[in-house]
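Figure-free illustration: sequence to structure, shown twice.
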Amino acid sequence: MFQGLCFMVNDKMCICVRDKELMCRIDPEKVELELEKGNSREMIHNGKMMKGYIFVDEGGYRNPKDFKRLIDLCLEFNKMAKATKKKKNAQ
């Protein structure tokens, strides 16, 4: 489902690097605020908006303070996020 390099924290997807974008998993209640700042867009998968996921382009993370803020948002939400249930191996 996700392309690029994903970083997992506590067995949960936290942030991914894909081409020149970051895919950030953040608190769904903070998505609109991030979108209003510009340099980001909602994540759409199979025609469906993915709640709590945004793509951020270079302009949104080029500044080290902005990059740290995004990482902090992802780590903050990671504490509350639910892990995906692990699939049992089919034999």
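We now fold a second protein in the same way, so the two outputs can be compared directly.
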Amino acid sequence: MSLTIAEAPVERAPLFPRKKKGITPRSIAILVFLAICAAFFCVPLYVIVTTSFKTMDQIRQGDIFSLPLPLTFDAWWNAWDSACSGIRCDGLKVGFWNSMAILFPSLALSLALSSVTGYALALWNVKWANAFLFILFMCAFVPFQIIMIPLIILSSGLKVYGTVWGIAIVHAVLSMPILTLIFRNYYKGIPHEIMSAAMMDSGSFWRIFVEIILPMSANILIVVLILQITSIWNDFLIGLTFGGLGTQPMSVVLANVVITTTGEAAYNENMAAALLTAIPPLLIYFVLGRFFVQGITAGAIKG
């Protein structure tokens, strides 16, 4: 009986082997540059965070890079509950609830107006659509300071100046050009056959928008939500100009807390107040960040 042994296939070396990439001066330069950029943002953030947990006795020693010893949350509580903004010592909580009251109507108005306008310009034969789109494109680059006084006059005539709704309307008006362009470019990617089939089924303008377009707009809505939440929450000038004494957003209250001093500057409270103001949009981005990337790659800023 004879046995046949299968020979293992012999691996041949590639004709053009790839060179192993080593550490080159170019890669070292890139890493050094990125490290400097990261340090440019991380070092001040480290100082702000550590200072917010320090006592004033440790801050007076002048070592801004030292760790907080002992670790205390008193500055955070004082910034939230009892920090003085002008003659009022109600803390940042007043500005936080004002910002929340401004945020929701601003989001509702801006998303409703811009999504419907972008939908009409992208999928319906609107007369003078190109001219209107060009005007919106030009308005997106007009500085707010140029139209600030006319907006004050208009909001005063509408009896909404100094109210939460007045700030929300201004946010919606100012965001409409860029958001309309974003929605229009996104809706341009929807197959035209879907619109034709919907029209053949006697679909009206609003029925097609609510039943077909909106369910397909999850990615772009998340992109716009993140952009608008960040813009509205971090806004200072609109809230300062159009908000009354009782409707100032958190950023305005933060500025008043920092410039209001009684005896000595409480640097730990100021740092804690700055972090409290920055936390809400950061949380939104961390929660919805991956959806933001999906919306961008799906064509949100394309076209």
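Summary for the second example: The radius of gyration is 28 Å.
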